[in-house]
Amino acid sequence: MIEFHLDGRSGVAPYMQLIQQVRQALRLGLLRAGDKLPTIKDVVAKVAINPNTVLKAYRELEYEGLVTARPGVGTFIARTLNDATAAHEPLREELRAWLRRAQAAGLDADSIEALFVTTFRTQLQEST
Q: For 5-8, which contacts have Cβ atoms below 8 Å and span 24 or more sequence positions?
């Protein structure tokens, strides 16, 4: 099951952060069709967010056809965004190794994230 987190410094609306996290989990194969999302009550308790914000995110995901709500039962993943999850595992392992090297070099989490994001964005700009 996915565990949501919110970044108040991101400038992204909380409901959009939830949507993005579900989409990312679907792309990475961490969520599959039939998996149950946390209840609105559980999300509210975990990330201290307004229930209407979670409801808005879940409704948007339902509108996109990614989840289905079953009244009294929960919200379930309807479809995935990627069928090539096996191809991700070697890349995930390489990234984990890179993260271990970055930590061993003395970088803290914020520095690692900044290095990754700036490098990622630069690479995207160079490849377009």
A: 5/47, 6/47, 6/49
Which secondary structure element, helix H or strand E, spans residue 76, and what is its range?
strand 74-77
Number of other residues whose CB lies within 10 A of the CB of residue 46: 13
Confidence check: pLDDT of 65 > 90: yes
Spatial CA neighbour of 61 closest among 5, 14, 1, 18:
18
pLDDT at 86 over 70: no
Band (pLDDT 50/70/90 cuts) for residue 89 is confident
The answer to whether the beta carbons of residues 13 and 55 sit under 8 Å apart is: no
Please state which of the four CATH numbers 1.10.10.10, 3.30.1330.10, 3.90.120.10, 1.10.8.60 is assigned to the domain occupying 14-77.
Answer: 1.10.10.10
